[in-house]
User: What shape does this take?
Amino acid sequence: MWVGFQILASAGTALIFTATLPLTLAPVRGKKVAVATGTYSFVRSFGLVWGVTMASIVFNGQSNTRLESSTVLIGIYIHALNAVWYLMVGMVGLDFVVVCK
Assistant: This one.
């Protein structure tokens, strides 16, 4: 069971790992490498912060609303995680539309 938690933590760490940086820098000329690296790091960090912040706001809001009216904790978490899931699916859809334009 403990291994499962480590796998989840490793998968989460892998999502923010900068292995794609060399692929981003490959087409960039020498003078623009510093700007490209800074932009890459900023955009990646900005997306991570917004994703985590928005997910935690939705989760806390949903769990606080349900907690006042119910004492069934598992149902509260399920509802809150569903709300976070829908938020993230919407964000991915919006990102897909913006990138594919």
Residues 16 and 48 are 8 Å apart (CA to CA).
